[in-house]
Design goal:
This protein is of the alpha+beta class. It contains eleven helices and seven strands. It starts with a helix and ends with a helix. 29% of the residues are buried.
Amino acid sequence: MLSIIDKYILKRYLATFSVMLLLFIPIGIVIDVSEKINRMLENKVPFGKIALYYVDFVIYFANLLFPIFLFLSVIWFTSKLANNTEIIAILSSGISFTRFLRPYIIGATIVSLFSLIMGFFLVPKASEGFKSFRYMYLIGNGREEMRDNTDVYRQISDDEFIYVSNFNTLSQTAFNFTLEKFKGDQLEYKISANRIRWNAQQKVYELYGYTKRTVGPLDDQLESAEKKTMDFNFELEDLTPTIYIAETLTFFDLVDFIEKERKRGSGNINTYLVVLYKKYSIPVSAFILTIIAVAVSSMKRRGGMGMNLAVGILLAFAFVFFDKIFGVLAEKSSMPPLIAVWIPNVVFGILAIYLLRRAKR
């Protein structure tokens, strides 16, 4: 059973974290609107689509920044407890520091489970809507981002390769499509189209500006059509940019997709695995950051709450920095993705144990 003190701390834990999120959400929306309003007006984006975009925006960034929000909220209300000498009173009553931590761990468990469920099912859908809106209406928002999410070149079998310059998930259309079929080292035929669209009702692909060049021993045969319907042995997701598709698949779909890509011998497995492993590592970070926050802010300091917040912000951004750096290393180097994704949690877990021992003393 939870004691009165447990309920009091747990209520403050969850309430402060919720308020922190609710305070930053409108700030994030206002900043994004101020940056994107001109393009939205130019493209005459319907209000309904804008509203749905900002629902996805809130879910996407709340998940992305949740470790920072959680860390700062725990430091904030724990520092207030320390400044009001409430922690001294609790510990003086005979309650050990480890027992004092119990409501924090319960709160971290609740937040972690919520984050885990969101990461498995809700965040991928929000990520798909968020990115699709940007591609559809905010194309000019950063050329570097567009370069990272275009020019998909993929091997779909031992002797077949496909390429598209970019992909629109809303219309399920890819542009500048080519399919090359080889026989040994020799090109057998090449199919090209200005755009290719998936027809979900008929379960076929529609090619516009279609041409097919079949290589012959003496001369080539050319075939062309304004529109042609074809059935290919690749799926719609094969036309999607690497990181984009991984972020938009729910947990079980992502596991199946990774297995399929392994059998194909895909060179992008590490990128997919980083996304998969982060679905587990981010919820675990809630426990680590909670312990660090309590250890840092449970004692009165000469600088007061401001000093605790300064230390907290520094540690929070250090955690995010480590997380990003090792995520990139896993994608771009030979470092195993599982190790790279979990290194920030291991490093900060050791730091949490050290700070917790100091706080107990």
